[in-house]
Amino acid sequence: MTRVQVAIVGAGFAGLAAAMALRSVGIDDLVILERAESIGGTWRDNTYPGVACDVPSHLYGFAAHPNPGFSHVFARGGEIRAYLERVADAEGIRPLLQTPMLDASWDAATETWGIRTGGALPGTITADALVLACGRLTEPLIPDIPGLQSFPGPIFHSARWDHDVDLAGARVGVVGTGASAIQLVPELARTAAVTLFQRTPAWIVPREDRDYSAGERARFAADPQRLGRLRADLYAEGEARFASRSGDANAAAAARDIALAHLRAQVADPRLRAALTPDYAFGCKRVLLSDAFYPALASGAVRLEASALVAVDGRTLTAGSGRTHAVDALVLATGFQSTRQPYAELVHGENGSLATHWAAGMTSFGSTVVAGFPNLFVLDGPNASLGHNSSVLMMEAQAGYTARVLAARTGVLRVDPAAEAAYTAEIDEAAASTPWLSGGCRNWYVDERSGRLTLLWPGTVDAFRERLARTSGSEFLPTTVTKGAR
């Protein structure tokens, strides 16, 4: 049995952010559990053709670890994974790899977390505090389609890409038109005959990606202040996008006009253009960035099936329209289990599992701590995602809050249920009039069980930072209050 002050689960952006923040306040007695063979999280798991970030490179990283060497305005997936590995090396962070958390239970007698592990290092870890940095888009969502499991050819999810399958010259069906699909479809279409099943079209705006020249990268390396100014500019641009995503009428209309102009400029066929035009409010679903998706469809290299896949019979795929399509391979770009986090089944607090506590949708205080789960912190969990700026900024804010509270604690930290209820009410009130709830679409931000917005933070990053900064410890029950953490 191993005893530590803090156990962190997950070695992606959130896990590294937590480790760095805790060390910055003198908490070095910690362990990081990682179920995979390497660090990287999303950027380890997603290796599909064309995978890249939708946030500018120099904003999608840790503030303390700028990377002047990013090759493009929007970093490729492999670059981001390599960046995370370099950060871990620079910080001396050594996760326990291939060591999944099988169960985590609060022990009332010892007031500690007992964490059962498997894989390479099976056993039990006892920790005073537990930080869940498991990610929110980790488990692929496989649609319940009749006959899907009987498909005789290669079939895999975009986040579990099978690089042993050669798709050149093949007839490939792609299910979904979300963020992953619009990146991989143009790449697949270079060598394969692609049929794309679109349940709902997306709002797509220009990406305007480009290479950073060798000269630019050299100047970034030589002048950190130049890179700092660029990061500040990118941050301000991201914060400004919140208005169009959250329902400001004028900002949304302007952004919608940009998206429609982009579509008109790249798709001449009026029928195809109509099929690709959303009928819901701008911002209701994730707004996508691409300069290659529309041209791939307009070129004829991709056949658009403007309805969902509803049945599979051998190699024959039937769409909601009634049309059938024969394919040799099938790629599911169908998203993830977002509102029902898989790790929640494994975590047991004072009154049951985290999954039970979240049975009507995820709730928390500060998007980080949860009533009934003492000394537990969840990064990138309830209402901690963004639709307008870099999610790394949110993780860093949560990690800072976690470190501040743990450094100041004098006993067990039990969240006051009233504080969680009040914070949840704040979220609900702020979200009520946004397109995410009222924009006429179905999205992965909203829990279908309660109809609540449970993934997105309905505000700016500035507002989230300010919300966490003004906590005083009153979110915890008086009997276990901190020393006035701030």
Describe it.
The structure is a single chain. This protein is α/β, with parallel strands linked by helices and 486 residues long. It has 2 domains: 2-139 and 337-480, 3-Layer(bba) Sandwich (FAD/NAD(P)-binding domain), CATH 3.50.50; 148-203 and 248-332, FAD/NAD(P)-binding domain (3-Layer(bba) Sandwich). Helices cover 31% and strands 16% of the residues. The chain has helices at residues 13-24, 42-45, 77-91, 179-188, 214-222, 224-246, 249-266, 270-275, 293-298, 354-357, 391-408, 417-431, 435-438, 461-469; strands at residues 2-9, 30-33, 101-107, 112-117, 123-132, 155-157, 171-175, 193-197, 204-205, 288-289, 302-305, 309-313, 316-319, 324-326, 329-332, 347-348, 376-378. Strands 1, 2, 3, 4, 5, 16 and 17 form a 7-stranded mixed sheet that branches. It has a 5-stranded parallel sheet with strand order 6-15-7-8-11. Strands 12-13-14 form a 3-stranded antiparallel sheet, with no helix packed on it. Helix 1 (13-24) packs parallel to helix 11 and helix 6 crosses helix 7. The longest helix has 23 residues, at 224-246. The two termini are 34 Å apart. Keywords: Oxidoreductase. It holds the Pfam family Pyr_redox_3.
Name the features.
about 475 residues, alpha/beta, FAD/NAD(P)-binding domain, seven-stranded mixed sheet, five-stranded parallel sheet, 17 strands, about 30% helix, globular, disordered C terminus, oxidoreductase, FAD-bind_Monooxygenase_sf, FAD/NAD-bd_sf, Flavin_mOase, NAD(P)/FAD-dependent oxidoreductase
